[in-house]
Amino acid sequence: MTKKRNSLPHKNSNDVDPQEDFLVVGIGASAGGIQALQEFFKKCPQRLWVRLRRHLHMSPDHDSKLVELLRNVADIPVDSVTKKTKVRPNQVYVISPNQHLEMLDGYITMSRNVTIEDRRAPVDIFFRTLAESHGPRAVCVVLSGTGANGSMGLKRIKERGGAAYVQNPKEAEFNEMPRNSIETELVDEILPVAEIPERIFVYKKNRSVLKISEEPDARHEDQQHALREIFTQLRVRVGHDFTNYKRPTLLRRIERRINVRNLPSLSTYATFLKQNPEETSALLKDLLISVTNFFRDPKAFRIVETDVLPVLINRKNNDNRIRIWVAGCATGEEAYSLAMICAEQTTGMDEGPKIQIFATDIDEAAIAVAREGLYTINDAADVSPTRLARFFNKENNGYRVRREIREMLLFATHNFLKDPPFSRLNLISCRNALIYLNQSAQERVMETFHFALNPGGFLFLGTSESIEGASDLYSTFNREYHIFQSRPVNSRHYPVPESIPSFKLSQFNLRKPGQDYIWRTTSKVT
User: Fold this and answer.
1) How many CB atoms lie within 10 A of CB 506?
2) What is the CA radius of gyration of the chain?
3) Could you report the per-residue pLDDT of 93-125, keeping only the tens digit for each?
4) How far is the C-alpha of 518 from the C-alpha of 298, rounded, in Å?
5) Which of 44-53, 231-240, 242-251, 304-313 has the lowest mean pLDDT?
6) Which of 296, 356, 344 is nearest to 320 (CA)?
7) Phi, psi (rounded to 5 degrees) for 289
8) CB neighbours of 92 closer than 8 A, spacing ≥ 6?
9) Distance from chain centroid for Cα 420
10) Rounded alpha-carbon distances, angstroms, from residue 520 to 224, 421, 494, 496
11) What is the torsion angle, in degrees rounded to the nearest 10, for the CA atoms of residue 279, residue 281, residue 282 and residue 287?
12) 357 vs 344: CA distance, rounded Å
């Protein structure tokens, strides 16, 4: 009879200081995942679980024998979660099939998969919950499985400063889940499953050792020199200047890269960066994580649909056109979301307005994805079945946005901090980008957007963003969902952009070439 190794005594949650810096690890797997999981837990050193909490999620096609199988190989307790449960360190929690979890105030709560996204993408929804609840302490692991499950939620883990590890597809029984996660280009390491536990332990250990002070005066000269060298490498190799970004955010992301690479110091990392050009791209990905999804914050999009667009549609203008700018569009999901609700609002209207959406980002790779308009079923998990059928075509293992929607959008690389903006706009959507900028840069962007908007035009921000410092330029339209309107002003000087646009006007096939890039310091026309 096999001995149940998880019968060893373990600490109660009351024995652990709640302020301690533990990690929270989530594993996603489906077909072929049981064998990978058993190998994972066989190789887990018991010391790994100190200060760690563990959550495990399998897709719905697995049976309830998983708990028993893991108990036979794990050195820590393995429990199936069927009701509200207090989360304890040094514990494995297995989520029942056809269930999903939410984490709140140290408890796991379970509910059945009733929404379409729960059923389509259980691992992705789980990873999202993990990211929202635990931020930079979240770690996700993607093992053997079919489809793209996990790849969309992994992006949210990385956006919040967490870590992502993936089983080497060559050893996975079913390699689709690992391969799709790797294709995001956000995975920290691709490893044999037996090596992942130890790597997580090393990552956790490094997090508590290396800290870069946010105050320049508190840093040694060698650290100051190393930081200058790192930002110089980024500017020279990829052409991005991070002067206007929040320094604490940048330092945390650099710390994360050092920990992932298992390097001892900032100076060592600067040397490593210089000698390994591919690390520059990896660091840039961490600093500019282009993460979005369709209809992110659905209640906010509902307000745009029901309260904002009708106002714009009912307004009469000379060219009967609604012009929208999605600034920081990442891989395009938000821009396409706006296009879909615009199409729904205007289809069948007599003399309905023409919709013109400009979508821009500084990440050329993200823009390339957006232009293709091809997304996995997991990327499209937040799209309703009705919209999926109406606005997408099934293509291989994914969905491509239909041509009539794609023709409403014009994608281009553009830096709204320094490139001239569009003008005569009715709506600007810039969500979850300003939070990475320092206060002076945010104020400059608010002025830029105000110039670009028509009086009474709408500004749609993320849930953590506001018009603080620019209340003279905007009035509040909907406080809860961060929607504002441009105030008319008599005269205002706007900052002159630092450079010409990084794209050509011919990309946009404008009816009046050049009209979008007239930059004035004169009065705002009402």
Assistant:
1) 8
2) 24
3) 777 666 666 666 667 776 665 555 555 678 888
4) 35
5) 44-53
6) 356
7) -55, 115
8) 41, 54, 56, 70, 74, 76, 77, 78, 79
9) 26
10) 39, 11, 7, 9
11) 120
12) 15
Count Cβ atoms within 10 A of the Cβ of residue 194 and give its class: 0-12 exposed, 13-18 middle, 19 or more buried. Answer: middle
Closest CA to 194 of 35, 432, 402: 35
Tokens of 136: 């930079």
d(C-alpha 477, C-alpha 356), whole Å = 23
Let me know if 236 is exposed, middle or buried by CB neighbors in 10 A (0-12, 13-18, 19+).
exposed
Place of tokens 């105000």: 450
3-state helix, strand, coil in the chain (%, to 5): 40, 20, 40
What value, to the nearest 5°, has the Cα angle with vertex 184 and ends 360 and 431? 35
Would you put residue 312 in left (φ > 0), alpha (ψ -120 to 50) or beta? alpha
| Rounded Cα gap, residues 138 and 25, in angstroms | 6
Q: Answer yes or no: are the C-beta atoms of 154 and 186 closer than 8 Å.
A: yes
Q: Which two tokens stand for residue 82?
A: 């069927």
Other beta carbons less than 10 A from residue 427's beta carbon: 24
Reduced to 3 states (helix: H, G, I; strand: E, B; else coil), residue 327 is strand
Domains, the chain, ordered by start: 5-207 (3.40.50.180), 216-287 (1.10.155), 298-517 (3.40.50.150)
Helical pair 277-287 and 221-238, crossing angle rounded to 10 deg: 90
Which residues, listed in sequence order, are joined to residue 354 by a DSSP beta bridge? 321
Residues 323-348 have pLDDT tens digits of 999 999 999 999 999 999 999 998 87
The token pair that represents 125 in the structure block? 């929804």
Distances (CA, A) of 407 to 321, 347, 380, 432: 15, 15, 19, 25
Report the side by side order of strands in the sheet with 354-361: 409-413, 354-361, 321-327, 425-430, 453-461, 483-486, 474-478
- Tell me the whole-structure pTM to 2 decimals: 0.79
